[in-house]
Amino acid sequence: MATINSRETVDEIIRGNGLYPGDDIRVVRIVQYNNIFDGGIAYGLIYAGEDLRRYHTGATVNPKVIWDYKPEHSERI
After folding, report:
1. 1, 22, 23, 43: which one has the fewest Cβ atoms less than 10 Å from its Cβ?
2. Could you write out the DSSP letters of every residue in 16-69?
3. pLDDT grade for 67, boundaries at 50, 70 and 90
4. Domain extents for the chain?
């Protein structure tokens, strides 16, 4: 489970169509939510093969999908 607090990093992943510079594992969904501990905004990164609803239960409040990977027509995920 990958959770980050940096919107700048999220924006860089989105610009890279799911890839952070230097990474070779693609993020396929990003969920923004408020954590239950301090209400702060956090971003859940979901990778291929993981449960796409994982941030919609548990220690999250107001989960909202802010980005989904859109593969090229000929690309498989």
Report:
1. 22
2. TTT--TT--S-EEEEEEEEETTT--EEEEEEETTS-TTGGGSSSEEEEEEEEE-
3. very high
4. 2-68
Tokens at 45, concatenated = 């990164």
pLDDT digits (tens, 9 = 90+) for 41-56: 999 999 999 999 999 9
Residue 71: predicted pLDDT: 84
Is the distance from CB of 58 to CB of 18 less than 8 angstroms? no
* Whether pLDDT at 1 is above 80: no
